[in-house]
């Protein structure tokens, strides 16, 4: 009977892992796993038929499964499921908070918008923060809603109870992947990234991407962005920033530093580029999308075009109307920073070779041509 049950149980889990399941199926697997642990399935399996008072002969729970089988079960669970599992007992808690389980969730949800700067900021955050998971009022702040918040509170109680039983501190390590995930999920950790079309698509920032610090709002599944001061202009705050408007910075450097371009010599008409631009030298740079265009002396015929041989490179910003002073500019191939207080300063250039990057810019194209 025991062998039959184990084979059936494990076959179910391995079968569901091979399928592409909807979100509700993951929760079903979570509840099923939770049921097996909270209710030892062998505690009444073998009793003497004619003597109901006879003692239990065999008792078993899911913790008695082989290591590989249990790891496969936990690997199937979403973050909320792992938090539920961690509430069951100290043995499962140690398994459910392990980095190898949470690194996958961290990468899946947050990997595309967390760059090297965000990882450095996280290290600074945990070294200076007084945050501890076993202080649930610190972890949740004013976010008294949502499934993940209630699970964090429940998980926090597990650490407090375990600390009371053992007589010494038992809290989640600050540098763990789970700690990072929950700090991002609850919005406590502000991380650096870049935002397309800042300040709700303000006309002065269309087809640009600027550095900001971001905090996640689990209730709306959006972000709050905090932009650095521009000269005498105070920091700007924007709410409701959606996932598709955020990226990790492609260049790991301060927005006040000029990017040293390494592709100027190879630029030719039709190339997609990003270029740094700032209003004046007190401001940080933003990245602006453009194309390499043809010289006025060229008719645009690729068979006869020699623009790529010229020391002058034409940059076009086609989101602006023809005749606009922002539509075209020219730089030299030994370009560093050029400009003036009236037209702003053009900095370093990145040639875009990645189709995904180009497609991202095109998705943020304005609905109408700008003046």
Automatic annotation (TrEMBL):
SUPFAM superfamilies: F-box domain. Gene3D superfamilies: 1.20.1280.50. Keywords: Signal. InterPro entries: F-box-like_dom_sf (IPR036047), F-box_dom (IPR001810). It comes from the Eukaryota. Residues 59-105 form the F-box domain. The keyword Iron-sulfur does not apply. Residues 1-20 form the signal peptide. This is F-box domain-containing protein. It comes from Arabidopsis thaliana.
